[in-house]
Amino acid sequence: MPSTTECIARLRKIKPDITDAEIEAAFDDVDNILTRTGHSGQERHARDLIKDKSYEAYLQALILKRDMLANRAKAAELLASVEGAKTPGDGVSETLAGSNTPRAGKITSVETRQKAIEADLASQLVEKLDKAGLTGVFARGELDRQISMEMFEMRPGGTPGISGSKDARKIAEILKGINDQSLRMLNDAGAFIRNMDGYIVKQSHSQDKLRRSTFDEWLATIEPLLDPRTFDEMAGPQTPARRREFLQEIHTALASGIHIKSTGDSADALSGFKGPGNLAKKISQGRVIHFRNGAAWHDYNAKYGVGNLSAAVMYGIRNTARSAGLMRVYGTNPQNAFETLLTKLRETHRSNSKFVASLESSTLRWQMAVVDGTVDQVGGSATFAAIAHTIRSVQSMAKLGMASLSSFADFGLAAGELRFQGSAGGRGSSLKGMASGRRSTEFRAAADSLGVGLDGTLGHIASRFSTEGDVPGRMSKMMTTFFKLNGLQWWTDSLKRGVGVQMAYDLAVAATRTFDAMDPKLRGLLQQYDINAREWDVIRQAPLKMADGRRYLSPDGIADLSDDVIANYLGRTDASASTLRRTRDDLSQRLRGYIMDRVDYAVITPGVRERAYMTVGKQRGTIGREMVQTLMQFKGFPLSVIMRTLGREVYGRGNWKKGVVPIVGLMVELTALGYIADSAKRVFKGEAAGWRARLVWRLPFCRPE
Question: In whole angstroms, what separates CA 686 from the centre of its chain?
Fold first, then answer.
């Protein structure tokens, strides 16, 4: 057996920059293994465990080296992109939340990446469930337990069909495909997550539920459901007291919300490994909970998760999008990269007080808090957060009952955005989307492939007019149901479908031209999303989709491009299959991100910049956050109109004077549509006068008593 000195020499050979603390932690791990197995009678087992541990250390070293090189490249790309902005602060904001200012050299923002990934995964899920005719069954949750059982058995040696339900097995196969896609996206973005036997979906843990119950109550629920392998990585002997302490650490980590936040220290295997010492900590905080079977997973999720299985799936998709989108831009340790970028920019521009001041703006940290999930954690009192959330939710349902009638202005806003893009479509496209119903024609299938019009499915409807859109829980589910019944969900999804499909049609028309020959308005917009001449020459070769006799350019078509086209774009004939696949995904995400983001301009939906102001970057449950969020309730829509619509017209044309006429025209149009909306509400309230009163009398269901 090698001496301690020889072991240290081997470790330093594997990882030259290993620290003394990491070496000590590695030896502690080995000592724990020997203590757990005993030094006699199980030496072979101990050697196998130590061998595995050594392999993990070697693997960590390789991952660290990979991440270091990748992060350096991303840091250089970020710095170059920021330097081209009006001020460094503006440039940093562009990397997080985009901007209205057109300029070449931008990178695709974190927000745009996150929207694209979420839409990609959600559209695949909806499309596959629709084809199988199982969308309703899945949404209602009537087979959740059986589906969980089937997913658990999708492993080597498993027994598929254990539930006895063919529908449950089919849905489980679909969800397994989405899980595999999510895992690939995270790993491509820089994570290193391996397939796990018995994995169902990303386990959701409701902070509110965890904080409302004691540790002993949580322990009594979860301990009988756990598989013994949960404790395999536990340091020290496996005594009942040590198990309790181990689970106490997990409970504290979950209740604190660090499993939500997408940073280098998160519990979702997002950061590159920093060394053997960090591995045990990461495992203890991350994917360490293993359940006995699918039924056990279901029982835990029903009590301490964010809802039923469909809610857990959407929760997992959102978290995948948040994490992968952030890593795509800021690397495997986003918070560190963000702070390093600010420091370098301060040093570079220390002689320019205006530039340095732009980097000290609080909004930059607020925006980072939104994209990395800090604002979705409970950082103060869970009870206070729950009470405030309930009060605002009740207010939203009380005051937004006629939100669908108030939304006539959406037609004008959508038409204004399409005109800004140089589109020939306008209100007609919007009306077509409204008339298309939900997923029963080629038109709707085209929209689903784009990922637009899925706000109701993703639970984002409430975020259009209030600040409560992404907080999981019973009250949020009630709000979603409310907005479905009052027509807002149908209105928003249908209108977004109409705009998104029109944009895909316009892109198909533009695909017949080179980048320099296309409409200057569209060319300028594509450049904002890091689609330049080289990218466009590849994208325009993607096969077009046909629907209702029209051609559409969809991001899905990029997956069908030949290897030769992608290799030519990379300038590498020796590119590996994984490199070609990642490049396809990157181009697809850029195009899908463009469509998703501009649809949110057309059908106003608050984004990162707006949420940053509505939450001031603070966590739920803190006095500052709850006060600001309550004051900003119902301000999300007007704030977004100012920052998106007016900002687009003032800054998006290169010269603010060019935006004067469009703004005046838009104001006139919105005023007229606002009058129609007000009249419609008065009619349905029975408050109309003159000719409107006569109209009310002719409508029995509106007739005043």
Answer: 43
Task: Please name the amino acid found at residue 451.
Answer: G
> Which of 97, 115, 91 is CA-nearest to residue 612?
97
| pLDDT surpasses 50 at 655 | yes
Residue 472: pLDDT band (50, 70, 90) is low
Would you say residue 565 has pLDDT above 50?
A: yes
Question: Which has the minimum average pLDDT: 114-128, 216-230, 320-334, 403-417?
Answer: 403-417
Q: Whole-angstrom Cα distance, residue 521 to residue 284? A: 51
Number of H helices, E strands in the chain: 35, 2
pLDDT confidence of residue 247: 87
Is it the case that residue 674 has pLDDT exceeding 60? Answer: yes
The total number of residues shown for the chain amounts to: 705
Amino acid letter at 571? G
What stretch of H or E contains 91? helix 88-97
Instruction: Spell out the residues 6+ positions from residue 639 whose beta carbon is closer than 8 angstroms to its own.
Output: 606, 610, 613, 614, 632
Q: How many CB atoms lie within 10 A of CB 481?
A: 12
First vs last C-alpha separation in the chain? 94
Q: State the chain's mean pLDDT as an integer.
A: 79
Alpha-carbon dihedral of residues 303, 306, 310, 312, nearest 10 degrees? -100
Report d(CA 510, CA 512) in Å as an integer.
5
Q: Is residue 545 helix, strand or coil? A: strand
Collapsing DSSP to helix, strand or coil, 103 comes out as coil
Q: How many CA atoms lie within 13 A of 700 on its CB side?
A: 0
pLDDT tens, position by position, 678-691 = 777 666 666 654 54
Q: What is the pLDDT of residues 378-420, one digit of tens each?
A: 888 877 887 888 888 888 777 776 666 677 778 888 888 998 9
Helices 88-97 and 362-371, interaxial angle, to 10°? 20
- The tokens describing 397, both together, are 């349902």
Q: Which residues contact 495 (CB under 8 A, 6 or more apart)?
A: 410, 411, 414, 430, 433, 434, 602, 603
* Residue from 107, 99, 105, 93 nearest 651 by CA: 99
Helix or strand holding residue 276 (H, E): helix 276-285
Please tell me what DSSP assigns to residue 373.
T
The residue-averaged pLDDT of 485-496 equals 79
Closest Cα partner for 109 from 363, 325, 415, 291? 325
Over residues 273-312, the pLDDT tens digits come to 333 333 223 323 345 688 888 888 888 888 888 768 888 8
> By C-alpha distance, which of 57, 9, 58 is closest to 280?
57
Please give the C-alpha separations between residue 120 and each of 161, 268, 295, 504, in angstroms, as whole numbers. Answer: 29, 20, 29, 15
Task: Tell me how many degrees the CA angle 414-420-425 measures, rounded to the nearest 5.
Answer: 55
Choose among 322, 325, 320, 316: nearest CA to 205: 316
Provide the pLDDT for residue 41. 44
**How far from the centroid of its chain's Cα atoms is residue 667's Cα?**
33
Token pair recorded at residue 139: 């949404």
Q: Are 113 and 324 in contact (CB under 8 A)?
A: yes
Higher pLDDT pick, 705 / 441:
441
Q: In one letter, which amino acid is 527?
A: Q
CA 200 to chain centre: 19
Q: Say if residues 698 and 683 touch (Cβ distance below 8 Å).
A: no
Q: Tokens standing for 98?
A: 């985009």
Least confident of 203-207, 526-530, 681-685: 681-685
What residues contact 569, with CB distance under 8 A and at least 6 apart? 534, 535, 537, 538, 583
**Which two structure tokens, joined as six digits, stand for 222?**
């979860």
Alpha-carbon gap, residue 556 to 246, rounded angstroms: 45
Q: How far apart are CA 695 and CA 705, in angstroms?
A: 15
Residues in CB range of 430: below 8 A, 6 or more apart? 410, 411, 414, 415, 495, 498, 499
